Amino acid sequence: MKASRFDSTVLTLCFAFLYIPILILIIYSFNASKLVTVWGGFSLEWYRVMWSNEGLMDAAWVTARVGVLSATIGTVLGTLAALALTRYPRFPGRMAFTGMIYAPLVMPEVITGLSLLLLFVAMNVERGFWTVTIAHTTFTMCYVAIIVQSRLVTFDRSLEEAALDLGCPPVKTFFKITLPLILPAIISGWMLAFTLSLDDLVIASFTTGPGATTLPIKIYSQVRLGVTPEINAICTILIGLVTIGVIFTSISTKRAETRRILDEHQAVRAAG
Amino acid sequence: MAKSLGPVKRKFSPWTDPAATPFIRFENITKRYGDFVAVDNLTLDIYEREFFSLLGPSGCGKTTLMRMLAGFEEPTEGRILLQGKDLSGTPPYKRPTNMMFQSYALFPHMTVEKNIAFGLEQDGLPKADIQARVEEMLRLVKLENFAKRKPAQLSGGQRQRVALARSLAKRPKVLLLDEPLGALDRKLREETQFELMDIQHTLGLTFLIVTHDQEEAMTVSDRIAVMDKGIVVQVATPAEIYEAPNSRYVAEFIGDINILECALVENAGECVHPGHPPVVHLESDGLKIAVEQECAAVVGDRVAFAIRPEKVRISLDQPPETGSNLAHGEVWDIGYLGDFSVFLVRLEDGRTIRAAQANVSRLVDRPITFGDMVWLSWPLDGGLVLTR
Q1: Which of B19, B193, B264, B272 is the least crowded, having the fewest Cβ atoms under 10 Å away?
Q2: Residue A127 to residue A119: CA distance in whole angstroms
Q3: pTM
Q4: Does B96 lie at the interface with A, CB-CB under 8 angstroms?
Q5: Considering only CB atoms, which chain A residues are within 8 Å of B93?
């Protein structure tokens, strides 16, 4: 089918709309000039400046640690929640619980952040690294729960029954059968949780304390004093990381798909 | 030298021996889900080395019954005994039963070999023993060359064999098969039925199969339990179920049958043929029918007369012989099935009777055709009286 002129125009405009701002940011991160809007030739100067900016590097380190920790705890809790929600189908109030899992997704971040802040204040917890981590765990957990739940809904329970039937006790069955099969969903849940934690500004700014400034907070506070090209540089690196992640996942999905098709061909040949 | 076909199928009927102890005993089993009664105070005995079928439409409780034996469901009331031992409270992973699932439930992330070895590994057998048993199972189901394949790389028939091998690997005391052949095409299904019987015979295990396919149940089983709405309607051998159903439900569920509403006019008990049961006389809207059968019903009772189409003879001329039942009608429709032709004959009062005739000669034009007036006849022992 030949693409019509209308289709290609719309497509071009959409992509331009999406990517021109990002492109400008990347281009200006290689700008030799100190002025953000004036091109002064190609240079990697700002990457060097960024690297030696201790405040920025500290913030990046905090963000990485918060991200890994909260994504990991959130994935464990979210997976357990998803299991509970799909596995005990007839407990009273199941619908309400399933709905409540979605609530943090639509809740304005300001409210989530504020309520967590109030909780920490009421409990008299000193705010810092751990409070941000806990806050991120609470909201990333919901995303993981939803991703894992959607996989579990299509999970064939007779696989577990078969394992039990063959003499495998329930806990072992979970680790030998269930977990390997839902692992792709858990991994993508973790990736999403990590990304969400990485770019959260609102909730982090409510729950953080001295010594635990995350990268988005740092960037935001620096931008208020004026955009410097080193911000462009660190943003470019973030974009690069995300792009690598996306390419990695899509390649592995594509590979799995190719393998599935090959398997089917083999099965057809075997049958014939 | 003639090729050996293996041992002749044994004459096997422990259920007729009052001294035989049942291998599996379902004792007053009731299973309720809320208000719904899936199994209703059911008692059933199954004997060792028996190939037993639970047959019924979906929702009749047959699968629930099997799942209770496997341990996936607990009975609400009653108990299940295996070799005299009460299974209540024993979890599925400690029961000496194995199940072949309808969906096969093969572990997609394991090879064929790993799937078959799974149960053996749970028992902590030495590696060499497991390997030997897996190879034996692969030979049994003729999949030696597929050991390293994943389930996704197999055809439906091969998956079914892997599922069978996996459930047999542990040599369970009872093998449970849940609609095992449902997903296979007809030809493969027939082949597999005979293979299943062979395997059961070779290994000497007790097989319990759940199916809604009456042909499958008839082919493979020693005995069949026909179920309806949580109760067992009849337990008997395939031949008894087919030739002597105890109710309209069983008669209509298994095979094709004509049923005529009748009034009982005479149950005098005189014998026409020495050694045969006494004759019962029925009348159905002017049609007089005589049946050789022991029957508890009395004169005036409403009963049903049932006869299989292949037991009704069809002819253009009035059959000369007496001592058989006769009806006259018009050929309304003909179904040509290749091996059989089924004639739908309309009697004068509008009712129809089906008669099946084996097509014994290679004629394309049959002598009897649409609109012909024909005679239907059947012997005194051709049909039967059903009182329920």
Answers
A1: B19
A2: 11
A3: 0.80
A4: no
A5: 164-170
